[in-house]
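In response to reviewer comment 3 from the previous cycle, which asked for concrete evidence that the modeling workflow produces usable outputs, we include below a single protein chain processed end to end. The sequence was submitted unchanged, and the resulting structure tokens are shown without manual editing.
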Amino acid sequence: MTTRASMTMALEGGAPTRMPLSLYSWMMDDRNSARWRRLLDAGLGMTHHCCTVRHVEHGVVNSEEDRVEGNHHYHRYRKETPVGSIQRVTLDGWHHEDWLKEPKDYKVRQWIVEHTELVAEYEAFARADAEVGEFGVPVVTGSRTPAMSINVDWAGTQQFCVDVALEVPELFDLYETEKRLFLEETRLIAAGPGRFVKWFENLTIDMIGPDRYRDLLVNVYEEAVPILDAAGKRVMVHYDGGLRVIADDIARAPFHIVESLTEPPEGDMLYDEARAAWPDKVLWGNINVGWYYRPEAELRAAIAAMCARAGRRGFAFEISEDLPRNWEQSIPIMLDALGD
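The workflow returned the following structure tokens.
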């Protein structure tokens, strides 16, 4: 069975003869190099992400500016519109300032969304499919759902959580506008190629709580997933943090796959607990990064224990957060352990 067939079988809810292990293809500096080819030939898989819908902002002037102060390098990204401007700043390559900082900024972002055109680029999937070949699966990536997009991409977690708690009207106006565009994008994805669709939610449930999760995320899933389901797609959400407090809500949510699921200490549920809570969902488990640096015997024992907890049906392993520095030594051990 090829790596692609093994991964596909697991993501469809089946039980391949060998537990798959994959990583995001962008983690590979050169997949054709001898060191990566050795691992691909040994059974390591790739998840190759592609976007089949492009966002075109009309009436927006984008600019960038660099500034050096002492030993520090600032880089400013700016968006100017007829209703105002917003900007994001990085400091020495790290996040420093988010796009949305006060209510008027939400209105600027809302104007941008209202003047965004969606363009189907279905040929991107064919390129991704050819790139991955028999060594993995192509996955179509859509935008984050509206609340998570505002949180992660625009306002930042602190500002978003404060403004949600204060029920800032401008935030919720933007949310509704983002939701309309998100559903339009979902319909375009549904009409295009690809079996698997991913939303990179990066959910931190401790910051929004179960009530907001139901109000702001689940209601979107209930509208969007059936559109993709009817088109023969399987939908996954990237959830890599604590989930226990919303386990029942996840069980009822219509998506098919919980991706990047990580055991404690990064997450807060063991694989057997997740399996018991969500018996109808596929689990794509990210292995805690700390295990890669343990002695070989401990790493093998940990993999065996995780496999026992997860069960064989509808489960696969992946590297979805950090590529370990010792990947050339640790990944072969993991592949061999999974082969056993």
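The mean pLDDT is 96. We consider this sufficient to address the reviewer's concern, and the full set will be provided in the supplementary archive.
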